[in-house]
Each structure stands twice: as structure tokens, then as C-alpha cells.
Amino acid sequence: MDREYTRRIETIEAALEKYLPPLPGQDWLAGIFPGLDLNGGLCEDLLAPGRDLLCRGGKRWRPLLSLLVCQALGGGEAALPLLPLVEFPHNASLIHDDLEDQSEERRGSPAVHLLYGNDTAVNSGSFLYFLPLAALENWEAGDKAKTRVWKLWGEHMRRLHLGQSLDIAWHRDPALVPSREAYMLMCRLKTGCLARFAALLGVEAARSVRGEAEQAGGGPGGALGEAAEKIGVGFQILDDVKNVSAGTPGKKRGDDVVEGKKSLPVILFLRDQILSPREREGRSALIRRCFEAARKGGAGVPEVEECTGALARAGVLEAAAEQGRVLIREAAETFASLPALDPEAGGLLARFAELLS
After folding, report:
1. pTM for this structure?
2. What is the dihedral of CA 80, 84, 85, 87, to 10 degrees?
């Protein structure tokens, strides 16, 4: 990623650290827990898991998207104070997701629940959803602007959890194969919604700088939110493809097979309309057998390779990847063509989207 993006990511890291510092001082404690006489040590079990995961890295593309949208709309860096609202819930969802799936690794290290215990992982993960509301409270904007952002946060947190519930239900029922349309909805809710929220956060930050009068008659928020959602869905599809083929950085290759995840390649493999009933049943039997063996024996069992090989030979890995790339290209085209955007910042947004593919 070129310097234009890395420079912005450095400012993002500083904004995140302000609300999840390595050593919380009295000012931080008083701001997060007003009226309580605490010291940093009392909060260690609450803060350490989230801080650990955040410090392992991550692409930070969601807060970067917020910042770029804000800048493209003439808001400068006004989105910076709000960025914990999108990045902390993302990390919270990873902690809970790994616990629910009993994943062993995240970002190259043992999953949080393995290091800190299930109870602490649940509690600290939940705290990460609510901690960034302190950033909203401290945001130097009017009450109307704060209320709009608060409503957006609530709407997208509800969507995120609904998407996760669909994903859980599907991999718990080996016989259930969702439709492509149902899978796309799940991705819009589970992954696309945080990207959409990131873009709308940038819109609201820019609005706070420009003032309410400039928004008469509407604005580009709808198109930006839709484009961002496409990025999130495309990113999820490509991530799912990588998991069962080359492997994704920081996770074990084949984790999705162990979890019995009904990702887009699996759905395309099982729902191919040109198959005969006998061929379709043969594929279903193969997937059930491989998923069951991986669930019992882990990612190292030969059935993981067997599953990956079958998906590759059927052409569904590349077919799914192309669907993900198409969504991201469509988002980039929107960013490049919206007349309301500053041309230079709009170009950065378009290139940013292409880098994710």
C-alpha cells in the first residue's frame, strides 16, 4: 500500500490507541468509568484481550474507508475521533467468532479465548462493542450529529449480529445448504454492514464540518454506503476462497472446512443446476464426509485437501473469486464517478477498493 494510505493508517492507529491504550492512566479511566475510583490494574482482564488482538495488526481498511470518505466530501480528518466506532466492533466480532467456531489461531497467534479463557473472551469482546461510544460522547459535534451517528451504530450492530446468527445456523446443520441469495444477504449483514457503517460514518463526520444546510435535498451517502457494502461482501467472498485454497494470513488453512462453513464456493459446488440428481447427491456426500472428518480431526486431516481439490476441479473457487472481484470493481467505479466527491480523494477511494481485490 502506497504512502498516501500508510500515512493515514498511522493517524488511525493513534486514534484507536487513545481509547485502548497500552497503559490506561487515570484520565482514561475517569473518561471511560466516570464516578468510579479505579486503577489500571483492575481493568487488565477487561482490556488486555482486545488490546492484544488490536496490536497483532489487521488491515484497518474499514477506518481507512471512513477517513477517505470524509476527506472526499471535504471533511478533512474530522472522522478520526469516530474511528473506534467501526474498528473496535470489528475486533469484538473476531473474538466472539473465534470462540463460537473454536478457532485456534487469529492474526498469527493463538485465538483470544485460548489465551485468556472463554469467560474473559466473551466479556472483553462485548466490551469492545460498547467502548467506542465514549469516543462518540467526546466527539466535538452537535447533539443532532451525535444522535445520527448513535442511530447508525445501533442499526449496524444489530445487523452484524443477525448475520452472525445466520452463519452459525448454517454450519450447525450439515444438511442445510443456503441459496446463493441467502449467502449474499448473510455477507451483507455480517461483513458488508461494517463497511457500510464505515462509509456513513465518514459522511456524518464531513456533514459535521460542512454544516446541516449543505445537505438540503440529499447527498451521496446512499451511493457511498451501497458501494462500501459491496466492498465488504466482495472482501468476504475473496477471504472465503483464500481460506480453502491458499490460506489466509494469520489463520490456519482449511479452518472453514473444520467449521463446516457454507461459503460461496461450497454453495456453487452443491447447487450447480446442470448436475444430475445422482451427481448432486455425490457432491453432497463428499462435502458432508470432508466436513465431518475435519471437524473431528482438525485442519490437518487429508479430507481438507480432498475438499479443496474437488472445489478447484469444479471451477467454483475461481467462479466465486470473480464474483467477489466484480463487486469490488463496481464499488471502485462508484467512487471514481460520484460528482460530489473531491476528484483527488475520490481517486484514492477507487484505488483503495482495487487494492482489496
Report:
1. 0.90
2. 110
How high is the pLDDT of residue 218?
Answer: 52
Per-residue cell: 173: 446443520
Choose the CATH number for 3-211+219-356 among 1.10.600.10, 1.10.3720.10, 1.10.540.10, 2.70.70.10: 1.10.600.10
Instruction: Give CA separation, 90 vs 58, 63, 301, in Å.
Output: 10, 10, 30
CA distance 244 to 246: 7
Which three three-digit cell numbers place residue 66? 471512513
For residue 230, the tally of other CB atoms under 10 A from its CB is: 24
Find out whether 196 and 232 touch, Cβ atoms under 8 Å: yes
DSSP 110: E
In this prediction, residue 217 carries a pLDDT of 41
Q: Coil, strand, or helix at residue 200? A: helix
Domain ranges of the chain: 3-211+219-356
**Positions of the chain with pLDDT under 50:** 213-217
